[in-house]
Amino acid sequence: MFVDIQVEHDQLVRMMPLLSQSGVRILVDHCGRPTVAAGSTTPAFARLLALGSTKRAHVKLSGLVQFSRVPSPHQDAWPFVARLLEAFTLDRCLWASDWPYLRAPARVDYGVLLKLALELFPGEADRRKWMWDTPRELFGFAT
Amino acid sequence: VELSIFAEPKVDCHVHVLDPARFPYRPDTHYAPLGQELGTPSQLEQVMDAYGTRHALSGRAEFGIWTRQQLPARHDRAQPAALQRHRRRAQRHHAPELQTLQRQGVVGVAWNVTFYGVDHYRDASRCSRSSPRSTCSSTSRSSTTSSCA
């Protein structure tokens, strides 16, 4: 069983003791929805990056619309994606759409998200790992 | 968009299925999406089919669960009554019943701290060690495309 947790801003700081004690496997939604204006060195984002080294957490590189301050393709969020990819590696990063986009602050479309995926991961092998191999293995999906 | 990405296999690890016409919201629900925020099993299946998404992990806003399952079979027949039972059982922390939940496609619990706040989960330590406070599922397109025709 997993705990799938959606946090934003500094909420992960207060949730970490609970997550650390529990020993459960963790899925973090939407890059942890960091505060873009505060940069990628906040305590909350640092804790999220540290989760990557525990190997018991996966992060969804998704939901950029939920924390970006600029329109698609949300380039102000890309540095956060890069830091998470570095910390978690493609072995523990997942793709997600968030369809049908509940409480989205701006219009989102599935095709546009796939275009964004191409921009973030131009290499087909990386994309396959992120969008297929890692989640399929994690959740036990058939081919 | 390069057409190749539509053909590449994909698992969508975060979707929501909301179909209150068939599965009404609880009266005390904190959030009852309407209009274009709704997403029925059939609509999800069409999206997955159009974009080459073979499987999905679906969250149930009404029940706070994430489930791994086939569409449409389990969405149509096993939910939501079964999920209401799952929710009550999960809250009683029965490990054997968790195994039952896993067999039925439930893969985890959902904590939406952005919606409920940190304090909402302050008593969750016991259940996070043994079982869901609320419970997550998955969805596969490949076996269901024909039944959607």
Subunit arrangement of the protein? heterodimer
Order of H and E elements of chain A: EHEHEHEHH
Through-space gap between termini of chain B? 27 Å
Secondary structure: number of strands of chain A: 4
Mean pLDDT of chain B: 70
Q: State the share of residues found in helices of chain B, binned by percent.
A: 25-40%
Order of helices and strands of chain B: HEHEEHHHEHHEH
Structural class by SSE content of chain A: alpha/beta
Main sheet specs of chain A: 4 strands, parallel
Helix run count of chain B: 8
Distance between the termini of chain A: 22 Å
Strand content of chain B: 15-25%
How many DSSP E strands of chain B? Answer: 5
List the SSEs and their pairings.
The complex is a heterodimer of chains A (143) and B (149).
Chain A: E1 2-6, H1 11-22, E2 25-28, H2 43-54, E3 57-60, H3 78-88, E4 93-94, H4 110-120, H5 124-139
Parallel strand pairs in A: 1-2, 2-3, 3-4
Helix pairs in contact in A: 1-2, 2-3
Chain B: H1 4-7, E1 10-16, H2 41-51, E2 53-60, E3 65-67, H3 73-78, H4 81-91, H5 95-103, E4 106-112, H6 113-116, H7 125-130, E5 137-140, H8 145-148
Parallel strand pairs in B: 1-2
Antiparallel strand pairs in B: 2-3, 2-5, 3-4
Write a structural description:
The complex is a heterodimer of chains A (143) and B (149). Chain A has 143 residues and is α/β, with parallel strands linked by helices. Chain A is globular. In chain A, strands 1-2-3-4 form a four-stranded parallel beta sheet. In chain A, helix 1 packs parallel to helix 2 (43-54) and helix 2 packs parallel to helix 3. Chain A has five helices and four strands, in the order βαβαβαβαα. In chain A, strand 1, helix 1 and strand 2 (25-28) form a beta-alpha-beta unit. By secondary structure, chain B is α+β, with helices and mostly antiparallel strands. In chain B, strands 1, 2, 3, 4 and 5 form a five-stranded mixed beta sheet that branches. The longest helix of chain B has 11 residues, at 41-51. Chain B is globular and about 50 Å long.
